[in-house]
Amino acid sequence: MAVSLLTVSLFAQNYHYTERKASSVAYPNQFLFSPFYFWDGTFMLSYERIFPSGALRITPSIKLQNIDDKYYSQREGWGLDLGYKFFLSSRPYKVNFYLGPYALYKNTKVKSRSHQVDDMLMSVAQTYNILGIGVDTGVKFIFGRFTMDISMGGGIRYAYLDGYNYDNSGVDWWEIDYKGIVPRGNISFGVCF
C-alpha cells in the first residue's frame, strides 16, 4: 500500500514538473539593443521579462548627438519607454506574434550654435519634454539564448518646450517639437538568460 502511494505521488510530481516546464520559457529574461538608433546619437538597451502570455518591456535611453546644422550644435538627454506585448498564442514559442501598448517620455536639451551679439558670444539651450502613447505590433523570434524582435506601430506624440510659452510645433514627425500622430518601427537583437 505504501509503495503504491509513493509511486502515485512520484508520478504526480513528475507530471506537475513536466507541465510547468512546458508552459514556461527556458530563459525568461532578455536584454535587447537596436543598432539603428546609433545613427540618431541614441543608445537604447531594453530589458524584457517573458511570461506565458506576453512580455513586459522597459527601455531606458541616452542621447548624445552633435548636429551639423546652421542653428543647432548638440542634443543630449534621456528617455524611458515602457510597453507590454500580448502574445497572440497562449504559450510562448520560438516565433511569437504580439500586439500591445506603449508609453514613453523623453527629456532632450538642444544647444544652439554660439553667435556674436553686442560683443558677447551667446549660446542658448532649450529643453524639450516629449510624451507619447500608442500601440506596437510585431514578431519575436526566440532561438535558445538569442532573440530578435521586429516591430511597427504608432501613436500620439506631444512635445513641449520647458520654460517657454511655445505655440509653434514642427510640421514633420521626425522634428523634435512635433505634436501629432507618429509612426514607429524597430528591429532589435538580444540575448536571453
Shape estimate: elongated
The CATH architecture designation is: Beta Barrel
What proportion of the residues is helical, as a percent range? 10-25%
Measured between the Cα atoms of the first and last residue, the distance is 44 Å
What is the level 1 CATH name? Mainly Beta
Number of helices: 1
The count of domains is: 1
Adjacency order of strands in the biggest sheet: 1-2-3-4-5-8-9-10
Radius of gyration using CA atoms only = 24 Å
Plain-language structure description:
By secondary structure, this protein is mainly beta. It has a single domain (28-192), classed as Porin. Helices cover 11% and strands 60% of the residues. It has one helix and ten strands; from the N terminus they run H-E-E-E-E-E-E-E-E-E-E. It has one helix spanning 2-22, and strands at 29-33, 42-51, 54-66, 72-87, 95-112, 115-117, 120-122, 125-143, 146-161, 180-192. The strands form two sheets. An eight-stranded antiparallel beta barrel has the order 1-2-3-4-5-8-9-10. Strand 3 (54-66) and strand 4 (72-87) form a beta hairpin. The longest helix is centred in the first third of the chain and has 21 residues, at 2-22. The protein is elongated, with a radius of gyration of 24 Å.
Structure summarized in a few sentences:
This protein has about 190 residues and is mainly beta. It has one helix at about 1-20; strands at about 30-35, 40-50, 55-65, 70-85, 95-110, 115, 120, 125-145, 145-160, 180-190.
Summary keywords:
single chain, two-stranded antiparallel sheet, Porin, mainly beta, 8-stranded antiparallel β-barrel, elongated
